[in-house]
Amino acid sequence: MKHTSFFATLVLLFSLATGFAYAEQPAVNINSADAITLADLDGIGASKAEAIIAYREANGPFETAQDLSNVKGIGARTVEKNTERLTVK
Predict the structure, then answer these.
(1) If phi over 0 gives left and psi between -120 and 50 gives alpha, with beta otherwise, what is residue 73?
(2) What is the pTM of this model?
(3) What is the CATH number of the domain that holds 61?
């Protein structure tokens, strides 16, 4: 019985640990997100986050997530890596 409890505990701990590792990242609205939130995107650091905000202020809201590639320093690959998390609504 002692062996079964130990095994069950290990399975539970493993399940909890892997569940957090695969937790879905929250969506990021590129039209309203602040610099800290934008910098959390893959391949976007603080300077690119500021560039997104500056572009948004100068040109108005993004119509599609793909429009993010219009920002200097952000390419199609960066948009592609984040496509599941990007929203404009």
Answers:
(1) left
(2) 0.73
(3) 1.10.150.280
